[in-house]
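Here is one chain, start to finish.
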Amino acid sequence: MNEPLTGAVALPDGTLVRGRGRREPFPTGPLPEFGLYLGHPPGREGLLRRSASWTPDWPATWLDWPDFRTPRDDATAAAAIVDAYQRARRGERVEVACTGGTGRTGTVVACMAVLAGHPAADALAWTRAHYRKRAVETPGQKRWIGWFAEHIAPK
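Its structure:
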């Protein structure tokens, strides 16, 4: 088995995924083998903010997901979350990150907890207990976890 990512959380089925904020210092230890990044895709971020856009040196998917909101394309986001979870389940070192690592990243971690077999109605509480106390910041993000569980997660 690969050495896990520093700071990875074990989902209810034991699958390891690291959530983090991109504005935090990069953790020590092994690099991710795949990243799911939430925000403005590279190239667009520099136009919207004065900071330069960042692209990882490993395979990654970027979702257009505005801060404090839900993804711009539900189906694309859901498919990317399922793909990232399946990669982690196979043993790849997967990280999920947005700028702060709390709202959008917490939403994805909660969706992955549902994929890992946790009841959707308790996914937010599970995420706050195991990932970050303030994970999932808005009512819309909370509702999106329910949408994901209803439309994507196995019954």
